[in-house]
Amino acid sequence: MLFDVIVVGGGHAGLEAAMASARLGNATLLITLKLETIGVLSCNPAFGGPAKGGLLREVDALGGYASVGADQAATQCRILGESKGPAARATRNLVDRARYSFLAKERAARQPNLSLLAGEVAAVLASGGRAEGVRLSDGREFKAGAVVLTGGTFWNGRVYHGLNSEPGGRVGEDPATLLRPSLEALGHRVGRLSTSTAPRLVASTINYASLPEQPGDPQARPFSALSAGPRNLVSCHVTATSEKTREIVLAHLKTSIIYADNPVSAGPRYCPSLEDKYVNYPHRASHLIFLEPDGPELCYPSGLPTGLAPEAQTLAINSVKGLERARVARPGYAIEYDFADPTYLLPTLESKLVRGLFMAGQINGTSGYEEAAAQGLWAGFSAARRAGGLEPMTLGRDESLIGVMLDDLTLLGVSEPYRMLSSRAEYRLQLREDNADLRLSPLADKVGLLDAKRRELLKAKREAIARGEEILKASKVTPELAQKIGRAFSLDERGAKVNGSVAARDYLKRPQIKARHLARFFPDLAEIAPDALLTLETEIKFAGYLAHQRDEIAKARRRESVAIPADFDYASLVGLSREAKDALARAQPATLGQAGRTRGVTPAALSVLAVSVKKFKSLQNLD
């Protein structure tokens, strides 16, 4: 049977890839081990957080699904990092995992142009350096113009309960074991990574009354432009490990596969296990635990992922305040799985070796629902263009967090599960949550990913921002009004003495002033939608920084425009260290910009390379 695009795997990456391809009008087939597990949340019951919230907003700006589902299934919404400024501001939603999965399956089932099939893919069919389809374990073959591989932790997954293990992609679910030889035969390097998840606790056995409550935030903004507002139905509670916890964990360290004599492969640095916390941060007296409702009967203790033996987990949990009598409904566990080296991929997530073969999600060495969804959407979009004979498109580091992630993965690779962080984005003030739609929805509209409703909302937001700008320019703040607002007025934002009134726009530049303060006294401003007002406020307050960043982006784009010939001989360069030569030869950067982001390449080495590339091109032109 012939399709335009085949997607393998029904997790967050696979779901976004399949729906992106189908939205573009391509006949798309999604193959997954079990149809009933489409969209399942394998680990924590939450979406978003630092940088991850930005990824989800970008998924929405590109017409994706995960943002909508995370809003519809939300049980608590919060804003994190508010005090750290707009570049660090992040939305996080606690969700009902069962509801999210139900909604995801329902959405996939009614997506036009998308067919669903249960089965295990045994091989990628390829000929002449091009993917042609897949073969299933039962021998059936399906042909397509492009293939997208996802699959999360299911590729040769092995679940560890302490030192005991069994094959599994999740607890109680069989892994996918047949694809690795096919990938290796196509020339891709395959390795192993690991991660761990926290136990589930019986909620009724927790002493919540003894712990601080953490309610939702009524001011939180939804991930999707299609959503009305936050859903705060439950509260979380906060506790922390004790000195007794430390003693128990260190005494039972060898019961964890993470610290066994033959440990699992590298785990995530930025979501460390309980064991890692005590080994790598011995100076910390305690570690925070956030008790998050996971359905009506269970609790997810965020901050307690572990590979300890089940009996050791119970001892450690009962040493924590509020959890003295807590019962474990399901122990935490570690899982080890296959991943394919992402440096074998182009920034479109297409294989450099096999045209029409794309990969997304944990198969590329990443961790997290949001990273998977973002990669899946872009891989599905790219695969659809490949199948349709259209030119590939890439996202720059200055355009999106997705672009930063794709560049990091395909240029630098991974030695541990990759997590998107705000600090990875050098232009993070430009790449904020609040302006994701302004940055990416025009592109999505141009290529056919954006639906009519999101298009209308984008237009309305632009108009609201323009209207807000007009109001702020035309309105005046007098000393008397400043007293009513309750903020000092005697000095301007530079510390100079102020006499008379000032434009509301200039008054808003002051660090202590928020647009909501002004909206109380200017009725027209109060009518501006909150998300538009937030973007306008940020653009005004940080205008100088944003202008400087735009200058830096222009310089970086000039470097990106200088292509390095594919046959350039790095070994012949004079003035470069062996480390720099080896790093460049491995990475094979396509541009000077990529070369400058390659590990081991210093600014001095980049200067030498720039001169050498210019000379090389001149000689080629003479020939």
Structure description:
The protein is α+β, with helices and mostly antiparallel strands and 623 residues long. The protein has four domains: 219 residues, FAD/NAD(P)-binding domain (3-Layer(bba) Sandwich); 134 residues, Beta Barrel (Elongation Factor Tu (Ef-tu), domain 3), CATH 2.40.30; 86 residues, Arc Repressor Mutant, subunit A (Orthogonal Bundle); 61 residues, Orthogonal Bundle (DNA polymerase, domain 1), CATH 1.10.150. 36% of the residues lie in helices and 18% in strands. Strand 1, helix 1 and strand 2 form a beta-alpha-beta unit. The longest helix is centred in the last third of the chain and has 23 residues.
Task: Give the key terms.
alpha+beta; FAD/NAD(P)-binding domain; 6-stranded antiparallel beta sheet
Bulk shape:
globular
Fraction in helix: 25-40%
Number of domains: 4
* CATH class bucket of the largest domain: Alpha Beta
Give the count of helical stretches: 21
Total strands: the figure is: 22
Separation of the first and last Cα atoms: 50 Å
Strand content: 15-25%
Question: Helix/strand/pairing class, anyone?
Answer: alpha+beta
- Average pLDDT, rounded to a whole number, is 93
Instruction: Output the CATH homologous superfamily of the largest domain.
Output: FAD/NAD(P)-binding domain
The gyration radius over C-alpha positions equals: 26 Å
What summary fits the major beta sheet? Answer: 7 strands, mixed
